[in-house]
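Subject: DUF4262 domain-containing protein

B.,
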Amino acid sequence: MCFECENRDRPGYVKRLRAGVADRGWLVQGVAAAGPYPPWAYTIGLSGYGLPELVVTGLPALAAGSLLNTLAARSLHGPPFSAGDRVPLREGPLVEVVELAEPSAHLHFAVALYGPEIRALQAVHADAQGRWPWSSDFRDGEGGQPVLGVRRVR
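Prediction pasted inline below.
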């Protein structure tokens, strides 16, 4: 379960997030798996640079954090990502960028810092065989990576 769901000191947590973003530039907020829903994570802080926040679903916390930190650094120091981009990573899966349909429905703490008009992109990752979650054979039919927007094919 996520900290937000269990937290009794939300204003204090938001204050700590604001300080962490000011200190480091961005943070990664993880959300644990719950029932049929896999774990997921998102950045908080890229909105402060005029960039969309980044999201990944279906990866364990450490892998999600590593992927999001890599992509956040690239987005700050290179051309911005756009929906439909395929991004090869040296030490990670190939990802395809999908624009979130409703970022404010999923990125509660980014909304707390930047408001409900934030933008977000999901880093959708291929499985070990290079298959995507919109393919019926993704992870041999096991699923586990919800896509939070509509895929834009280029």
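The chain has one domain: 3-141.

T.
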